[in-house]
Automatic annotation (TrEMBL), chains A, B:
Keywords: Hydrolase
GO molecular function: (S)-2-haloacid dehalogenase activity
Family of this protein: Belongs to the HAD-like hydrolase superfamily. S-2-haloalkanoic acid dehalogenase family.
Full protein name: (S)-2-haloacid dehalogenase
Catalytic reaction(s) noted: an (S)-2-haloacid + H2O = a (2R)-2-hydroxycarboxylate + a halide anion + H(+)
Domain of life: Bacteria
NCBIfam families: HAD-SF-IA-v2, HAD_type_II
InterPro entries: 2-HAD, HAD-like_sf, HAD-SF_hydro_IA, HAD_sf, PGP-like_dom2, S-2-haloacid_dehalogenase
Length: 225, 225
């Protein structure tokens, strides 16, 4: 197979390490940090799906708003009293994430191989721009693609189609990298050549259609070349 | 407002008590029954959303198959070795559920008031028919509507539209009852008059649009009349 002309990355949990969110949660709610961070993340993803599916997307809201709603729900669910300052502190974490240690080196190696690079994320443009700058990845990304313009979240095919439109390449010339199994599955179904970076030794989804590659670090994307 | 001409119920967790699934899980995997039952349910719902959203539903599979896939995933995730006999035992539970104690009496009361009654469920027809018979609710339901014919799961509007098509009533003449917050939200967004039966004292979803009624038992549906 030809090598990909472009490599698109998921953002949260893939290029950007969201571990610090859990640390802040633990500092604010001792003994509940892990449950809060995990429940918050699950609810955030659930909300992206509910607004995408229901009434043909009429209830779309940007990722930042859904993230805040998910935080509020999860605190209520866990019986945690979320003061305004704590809410803002947790939300601000999403704007100042660090990149995974290998993110920078992998993007540089891809540029050296002549690949177009980009992010294709559920995040809204403001959140993504802040995270890219905070993680020091500006200058290494040709595209920062947000679903916000089309008001549908991954795994809707219109979301993955953004990568086709931005690069001018057919899906089978685009490599897609995600640490989220569901995202790797959706991208594979869409037609991208997909690497699932399985950082946490999880089973893959049981819906058939494995991704082309499964790895343990972003470095494994170089095997496409 | 006019009283509803029809009342449609969600099935699993609403009319049918899925508690026995957790009991069987605990008997098979002592100490892990609760985690297995909860994880299984979450994954089952997640899979309905993934196949509905991705590639415009091209990856649809009936609820029974998704339920089995979700069970396999969750056991792998929890490091539980799922033998074939145990898998079948857990799957069979879904066919032999009991109804919640008030289900029968509420359906009878609705019939006495002249209301059309029905189920509108993600379950496939085989699963639903078995559960209706097992719970002794046959004869009290005018409609047993499965999304299987349209190959899209709730909260897709086409799923709720099945209720409109079957009853010939506009959405605002149909009361919809669910114990699942996300389902009550989707039904409200669709335009049904909705009762969320909050059996487990959970917070409602933080996406606005509260249901018309929130109750603690199916009996609360009688307040529509």
């Amino acid at each position: 197979m030809d090598q990909p002309g472009a490599v698109l990355f998921d953002a949260y949990g893939t290029l950007f390490d969201v571990y610090s969110v859990g640390q802040t949660a633990e500092r604010l709610f001792a003994g509940h940090g892990q449950a809060l961070a995990a429940g918050w993340r699950d609810k955030q993803i659930e909300y992206t799906r509910l607004v995408t599916t229901s009434n043909h997307g009429a209830h779309y809201r940007p990722f930042g708003e859904l993230t805040r709603a998910a935080l509020r729900y999860t605190c209520k669910r866990l019986g945690l009293d979320l003061a305004e300052a704590a809410e803002q502190q947790l939300m601000d974490q999403y704007r100042t994430l660090t990149a995974f240690p290998e993110s920078r080196e992998v993007l540089q190696a891809l540029k050296a191989r002549g690949a177009v690079t980009g992010i294709l994320s559920n995040g809204d443009p403001g959140m993504l721009d802040a995270a890219v700058r905070s993680a020091g990845l500006d200058g290494l990304l040709d595209h920062v693609l947000s679903v916000d313009g089309i008001r549908k979240y991954k795994t809707h095919p219109d979301a993955y189609q953004l990568g086709v439109a931005a690069t001018g390449l057919q899906p089978d010339r685009i490599a897609f990298v995600s640490c989220n199994g569901w995202d790797a599955l959706g991208a594979t179904w869409f037609g991208f050549r997909t690497l699932w970076v399985n950082r946490y030794q999880l089973p893959f989804e049981e819906l058939g259609t494995p991704p082309e590659r499964i790895g343990s670090s972003l470095r494994d994307v170089l095997a496409f070349f």
